[in-house]
Amino acid sequence: QLVESGGGLVQAGGSLRLSCVASTRTFNSYVIGWFRQAPGKEREFVAYIMWNSVSTYYADSAKGRFTISRDNAKNMVYLQMNSLKPEDTAVYYCAVYRTWEVGSAHASAYHYWGQGTLVTVSS
């Protein structure tokens, strides 16, 4: 089970840090990704992080503004979002890809999903 938190309303240019807690330490061995879904749009990739934090990957829209990190001792994954824009408004989801070998930007590759946390950026 994955549970996201940290969403809310923020003005453009502001920051938020999203958190995702896993119910089992097993997820510490896997890739964790963040995705988002805006109203009326398909779910899109934001970032992923390898199990040992050695490698991360970001969507172009997130590069330079968002940072994904994890603390396996706490079963936590974070998404620090800076310089937020109104187009970042969406429900943000964390997800587990049951592999430690390679990450993926495709939502269909991920096996477990949280319920999401809403981020609203006002202009």
Fraction of residues in H or I helices: under 10%
Q: Indicate the low-confidence ranges by residue numbers.
A: none
Extended strand count: 11
Judged by helices, strands and strand pairing, the structural class is mainly beta
Q: Terminal Cα separation, in Å?
A: 34 Å
Radius of gyration: 13 Å
Q: What would the principal axes of the Cα set say about the shape? A: globular
Kindly report the average pLDDT value.
96
Strand/helix succession: EEEEEEEEEEE
Counted by DSSP, the helix tally is: 0
Beta-strand fraction estimate = over 45%
Q: For the report, how would you describe the main beta sheet?
A: 7 strands, mixed
What are its keywords?
mainly beta; 123 residues; globular; seven-stranded mixed beta sheet
